[in-house]
């Protein structure tokens, strides 16, 4: 096995020394996993690569960077086509313009013509985190639905968490704001009146709740023509939400167009995905293309568990320059860290699947608005959540999977760090290792993706702080180049608070 040190470089490119590790600490308890979600019936999900196109240059020019990225064919933000080339309805073009989406990204430019071709064909689309997959499938849905029949449900989107479903609802409202008769049913626990028929043209929800409303005949599926699975690899993973999604699928018209989207499609899910969406057009990425260039991936070697907490608190000042997400393994540790940090005078909040729905909506709304800057969470928020001012992600616990949590969870690592570095922005991820298991886990993840992790030396705290601050400041400076993101976040927030 390759050694972590072989994957670790200093920012100047030189190698760093390997560091000693201590023995594994005892396992922790209840995590928010897809399996939890399936059992409860409620979806709970919840390199220092300086090679980016100018993103890491000291004299970084924020104003030109997004358009420069979109000009550069090598980036996922470039598209050979314009929105106008895609033959979209005028009201959708207006919606995209209003969001200041000047040009399609690569996944948008490539997937839309395929999704809109006639006769409709299934699609599997993979693209890095934060590259605009949501707008791609939302634009396809809004193109396909016949809004002159507004009381017939025609499109169904499934997402693994209530937060992601609400966010997608917000994006549909934002892109579709000029569409007459636009209405969306949020099929998440607590959002729909019990027993009341769902008569909106678009339905967005979590698989458990959607299965429920179909079984209770609240949702008439006979006119559904498009089914989207966001985070499809997670949704089709048979150890998690796969069963629920398959049950929903069997209740839908057999000829429905199926669209599968994710940043990751591991081999073991891919075959199953192709059966779920037969004869699909497919846009795939190589493993080496999966990491987002703008995210500086770092790690800290913590002597033990208690030091992890001390180091976390030392990072608090940096966390609050922008916004930060701290990922931990279990709900219990999220609660404990929140309580300890609060007692130590830091303003943080915890969000996980043990909270009740309305409280989850409120906590995320406060984070989106910037009222809360530091969020401690579990894998429930690892996927899809889009808050462009998140400049730092901390993997307090390295994501693991397998029967006894002994294998690193490569996909979850990628999705977690992808909460920063949205649509060409820069961001930092810092992973904590504190024992043999976490050290080896991170090592395997780095090898898997070919990541050059930068080690932050806590012996020289000023230097470590400078390295992180450098990136975060750039993220803050980029706020001006993604006004659209702010808009769609406000929409998402509005969606969550109105229904
Ligand atoms: N064409 C565009 N021009 C400018 N901004 C865009 C464009 N398309 C999407 N965005 C913005 O990019 C951000 C990321 O988009 P989105 O959430 O769809 O990414 P994603 O690929 O679904 O990410 P993830 O894999 O994390 O789910 C959003 O804030 C969105 O508003």
Structural commentary:
This is RNA helicase. Keywords: ATP-binding, Helicase, Hydrolase, Nucleotide-binding. GO terms for molecular function: ATP binding; hydrolase activity; nucleic acid binding; RNA helicase activity. The structure is a single chain. The protein is an alpha/beta fold and 499 residues long. It is built from 19 helices and 16 strands. The protein has helices at 4-7, 34-40, 62-71, 90-98, 106-115, 133-144, 162-175, 207-215, 232-236, 242-250, 267-276, 305-314, 316-319, 331-343, 357-369, 410-417, 436-449, 461-477, 483-498, and strands spanning 123-126, 155-158, 184-187, 202-205, 226-230, 257-262, 281-283, 295-301, 323-327, 349-351, 374-377, 390-395, 400-401, 407-408, 427-433, 454-455. Strands 3-4-2-5-6-1-7 form a 7-stranded parallel sheet, with helices on both faces. A hairpin with a 5-residue loop joins strand 13 (400-401) and strand 14 (407-408). It is globular and about 65 Å long. The termini are far apart. Adenosine-5'-triphosphate (ATP) binds at residues 101, 104-105, 108, 127, 129-135, 263, 384, 386, 388, 418, 422-423, 484-485, 488.
